[in-house]
Amino acid sequence: MAEPAPTTNEPTIEADPELITDDSDSTLGDDVSRYTASLTSSIQRYPVENNRRYHAYKDGGVVPPNVKFEVDDCEEPWTFREKFDLIHIRYLAAAIADWPKLMSQAFEFTKPGGYSEFQDYDIVFYSEDGTLTDDRELSSDTMQTTSKGMTVPIQKWITTFLQAARDFGRDPCPGPRLGGLMRDAGFQNVQEHKYKVPIGPWPKDKHLKTIGAWNLVQIENGLEGFTLRLFTQTLGWKSEEVHVLLANVRKDLRNPKIHAQFDLFYRDLDILIPNIGFEEIDAWPCGNTSLVTNV
After folding, report:
1. 120-124 average pLDDT score
2. What is the pTM of this model?
């Protein structure tokens, strides 16, 4: 049986025509940089104590007594003594070797009538207006515009990254598979949603512009962490080669003429509550909760 398509009501993302006022300018100017500058400053406003940085949410407050943080390998056998009302798993792209095993353990440790939700990416970069293509060369003239779109290092980087992750045995695009994996594990009433996530503040829509700015910041800040080990140890690249590529990738990320994006998949479901849709339920029991994320 074919997998039901995730619901998405999002139209094609329209680019902001006022973002580029000078055709010779292929990098983000002051009009755009203000988004990332303000976001970056807020991200970095965290207290530092004993040479360690802590989050600033309700700074000075106390963690609730029923909250416990554990760092563990979610791919090892789960050894919890009790099941959970809510299990939340997200952002494990390129991190999991055995997704069916992870889903089976999540199902096993969800209480009857409990609720589980999963969020993950399909990190294949694409554009809806032809400004990002597979036609690329890693050279100094890659910023030229062609009739087919932009010839860009960013596409070289993501294509190579995807292949390196697969060679390493980790799926870099688990998002589209999540619904089928959940059903195979035994979950019922799976609700599936797909969201388009822009890279950079190029959208005309203000909400998407902000999302794109946040996305740009997190990708830029994580580029070396995403790339160095995979490219050097899995693909055999020299560190210097990686840094040259990433320097060009950063230019592409800040090029307002390139309207790149990828997809985020959100799957939520319940077990053992037949014939009840997610939108019909006012609240879910969250007395015992587990969060699994990539740290």
Report:
1. 94
2. 0.75
